[in-house]
Amino acid sequence: MMEAALWLFDAVISGLLTAIGALPFEAVEAGFIRRALLTVLLVAPVCGMVGVYVVNFRMAFFSDAISHSAFAGVALGFLAVSAGLAWVDPRLTLVALAIVVGLLITAAKRRTELGTDTIIGVAFAGVMALGIAIIRFDPRFQRDFASFLYGDVLTVDQADLRIALLLAICVSVFMTIAYNRLLLVGLNLDLARTRGVATRAYDYLFAVLVVLVVTATIRISGLLLVTALLVVPAATARNLARSAGQVLWYAAGAGVLAGVGGLVVSIGYNIAASAAIILIGVALFGLSLGFRADWGRSAR
Amino acid sequence: MATRDADAAVRMRGVRVALSGVTVLSDINAFFVQAGINALIGPNGAGKTTLLKAMLGLTPFSGHVEFAPDESGRMPRAAYVPQRLDFDRGSPITVTDLLCADRQRRPLFLGASHRAAAQAHEKLRLVGADRLARLPLGKLSGGEFQRVLLALALLGDPRLLLLDEPVAGIDMVGEQLFCDLLVQLRVTQRMTIVIVSHDQSFVTQHADHVVCINDGVVQCEGNPSKTLTPDNIRRVFGDHIVLYDHGPHGHAHAHCDEQHGCGHSHADSHGHLHSHSAVPQEPNQA
Prior knowledge:
The structure holds 2 protein chains of 2 kinds. Chain A is mainly alpha-helical. Chain A has helices spanning about 1-20, 30-55, 60-80, 90-110, 115-135, 145-150, 160-185, 190-195, 200-220, 225-240, 245-270, 275-290. The N and C termini of chain A lie far apart (about 55 Å). The interface of A and B includes residues 113 and 247 of A.
């Protein structure tokens, strides 16, 4: 079963890579550029789509806390490996710790009357301190952190591509099922509940979805810039969209444009891909401000 | 309409709600009449919103809330119009988006379903908000937004409609429209309506049943014209409150002609509870 799924995934990935290779550009002759481009094409629109509700629910700080928990998550993985648990993969401990942190924040938000930013602030401090404590514990770990800090889309391997494809499928399915309900949840929790929406389930499910997107995107953008990939295209889309249906497409489009544009710029001018992607994303946001016509009343 | 317990659509027995250790409702025993307008009144902080939320199951409570089954023998569908909703005004959600999001399974980014859009349009027309259909929610005035929320509540044809101060901060025209609509819904759809209101003239003229709460318990309930005596008003709102009706219809007048909806003008017969007014008028003696 598992093997059949992997075979199918690999077949889809090699098909897509072949298609990218057929593009009339010299750069796509290099395998690493084809893989980088495919990763960006899979992950950037996903970030944009999820970003729509990250912005709606004001979860940018949540996303930051989750991405920064990667420090501690990876450090724990390295610690486990050096303690003799050779089967532990730091990429998995990263995701596991991030899910735990995401669920704890969501539970605390629901069960206490503390402000959400306060709860996240505490969680953020806790995971950062834990990460730093472990890094100090053994300086050998330190050199491996650069790729987590800044990301490196030009070195993605087959495993990264499988994760990106899985993520794209999961997010597409989730958004198709949950999009309308999340809209009601974002408007008002009590109202959503009286309209029959299982608000608690959606709260936790969306938190886990954001965790998965953030942890998978760290590979591209690094943990310092991952929130930008979620927030910037969605913010751009809010400026352009005229309905709740349009905003998702604009966000995905802005993500793809920034992702592909950033990759091209990064290869052409030899600058970090993550930085180039975000810079183009921010420039698109700046442009979108000019299109933010005063719609609504005048449209009557 | 007689307000007997036997007509009850909802019955609350010994309902108690504590929020973060503070008792908001200590012992609520009340009923709400079927296919009637039930007014819930009381001073600020009396627990009116909490009572509605307990009825909707939005807040945990002890005690019993019993619903009379609807025509098909099931628990009646309930809908809620919340008070002054705080929401993200920058979000690109149109009025139609909101109503369709409630009605259709297909995600909005794949387009609106014809059926959902038709239902949305029907309810918007009912509340006189069809011209708002394509506007973003953030551009609506307070009164317009309340009407849209009412349209949302009416989707799915509820048997029980709970409204939390729906006309607070709405202009006279909007208020009149809202009031006409509720009377119409009560008559044409035999809907049970529970409304939190500070508008005394609305309560005396349109409510079939009034429930007054303060200090976490029901102070009095029954037919408005019999219940809202000066003694009871004082018990609910305190010593410095008198009923002051500054319109021509200051006399006891329980409800308006159902055929004609609100037969009076809200603009000139507008009763409110005022603290310590100069000319106390005998309120609504039965």
